Batch of 2 targets.
Target 1
Amino acid sequence: MSVITIFNGLFSEAGVVVKRVVDATGYRLVPDQEIVAEAAKLSGMSEDKIARAFQAKTSVFNTFSHEKERAVAWLRLAMANKLLDSDKLLFSGFASQLPSPNIDHVLKVCLISEMKNRLAIAERSEGYAEKHAIKLIHKDDEDRAAWVETLRGEKDPWSAKLYDLVVPVGATGVERSADLIVEQLSNEAVQVTDASKAKVCDFSLAAKVETVLAAEGHNVAVHVNGNEVTLTINKHVLMLERLERELADIVGPIEGVEKVNTVVGEGFHQTDIYRKMDFDVPSKVLLVDDEREFVQTLSERLMMRDMGSAVVYDGESALNLVKDDEPEVMILDLKMPGIDGIEVLRRVKSEHPEVQVIILTGHGSEKDREVCMELGAFAYLHKPVDIEVLSETLKAANEKVQAGK
């Protein structure tokens, strides 16, 4: 049987349409939560980190951690497993964009309405005032646009070229919108064939390759045709031949792979250097210090050692970033205006005990050191610090973080 994928705009009555389609066809609804849970189970990543891939906002540490790319790879594998094991499935939500667009028996549907209709639904179904509803719609549209661009390279998430059927629900009506989807299931173009089954197998193998590469710290585009795998490098590479050999050595032994090709994408960004993720060094380090020149220089020196870092200049900003972005290791000054380092340390270890905090101060006393260690600081260092000493301390803190996972 054909598979249905439904992508929608917020307040476009997608839930009601989907229920009508499920009732009429007997298809099983697979929501985003189910795909996220499966991806988390396969990868060992938390469901929260997997689900963050759907958000437009990307972690400030992502250049080094590749966390979003790893999440997408595991989401694709979770989707591939569903497509291989079952039929009569309806995928609704962000995950509906995951299947390869060339799988013919996937009926790709978009449900969207004009803004005035969406605002009316927001008011009628949720009681939202117009101003609040507009804010929610714009945020959701932003997330969906970023997601579609990530997966499909298309900036317009509602573009007709992405779908077999685009339904303006507000103008068409809920009942007729559902009927249109059901009617299209009999279309010969979306019937299951041997060729379309083979494309699911290609999609599955590509997803497996992506997850294996992600586990080795690599992020490249993967295309599969039969048993032949093509890896596309969309970054400027300093030592291309060595990278190509390394990628081929990783992918070649994967079951089902008979041939590996590597190419450099036509539109690669020459200013964007390819970085392999090194799991032995910290990739999510937050530097907190009000001495701007010092902390910016320190960040640059850490990046030269392939340690990904972000910088903030006060305690309040540090607490906000920890809440939103979850750094793994923090280098924290004690004496800062506003919320001082000891208070930051106290709150971080209370609310996010897995974050390892290294105190780096030029003004601390022995009493300060004792207080910090009692609060759970990983280490207490004095300025000026030897960069090698700091690097080794960071690596040790990172080892503790990884062991805790």
Target 2
Amino acid sequence: MRVDEIMSRAVRTATAGESAELAYERMRAGGIRHLVVVEGGRVVGIVSERDLGGARGAAIRSGRTVGELMTEGVATATPATTLRQAANLLRGRTIGCLPVLDETRLVGIVTVTDLLEVVGDVARKASTDARWKPVRRMGRWPRVSEDRRARR
């Protein structure tokens, strides 16, 4: 599976000169945790809810701009990036999102939440598959040690 199959195409953006407080209010109102910072059509950073101090970060945001609080040197993906590659990038860099670029044009964003939804869908399908059933013994679930002995 590729990133372009699960990414959000409606990417919310901000500019570096935008008020940090205004950016936070837009995130809160939109129920999102990341804004891609764009200048002249080029991705220059990411600002997250955490960067802006969250609900109790009014003092951090006060009088500051997005450019002062954003993270530069953004890891990105392409539409052809596999979900495994995207997950490895997110986990390896301990980040919550990847802007998706086609050449230099911003075409989407993929988040940890997007990947978890895919995992949840796969797990749900597996649990309804007739071939996969949990093992129960004597009307109760086995203890881990009992289960390990049974496998030997």
